[in-house]
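Just curious: can you write a single protein's sequence together with how it folds?
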Amino acid sequence: MKNSLKSAALLIFASITILACSNKNELNTIFPKGEKGSKDLFTGNAYPTGLVDSDSIYNTVVGNVYFEPGARSNWHSHPAGQILIITDGIGYHQIEGKPVEIIKKGSVVKCPPNVRHWHGASADVGLQQLYIVPNTEKGIVNWNEAVTDEVYKSACR
């Protein structure tokens, strides 16, 4: 009986471990994936979804972006800045002229007003983020050119 309980406990533990490790690269999505983002704004497969539209009371835009591995935004800036909250995965964020930062689940990033930056998933693991753009009366986003493969690959080193 004692050996049966030990065997059963070992079997349950092994099953849980296998299930927990089997989909390491799959993200736990919180919000709907949404439609694929424009090739004019993203490299790779990125799926932005608006969650809160700006209005005269909140003056804030909130949304979610799901980046598949290797996907990233173009360089861009926000007149009033942006806050990113990483809800799953691993990726990169870079403010122009500064080193690339590794971001992962639990990271909170403040992008200063009118400062060019980009963000996206690592080469091997996707990234899911919430974005918050405050004070939308100043504007929401100014999109620029794509992040080159050379800049992106330098983040992967």
Notes: Residues 27-155 form a domain with the Jelly Rolls fold (CATH 2.60.120.10). Confidence is low (pLDDT under 50) at residues 4-23.
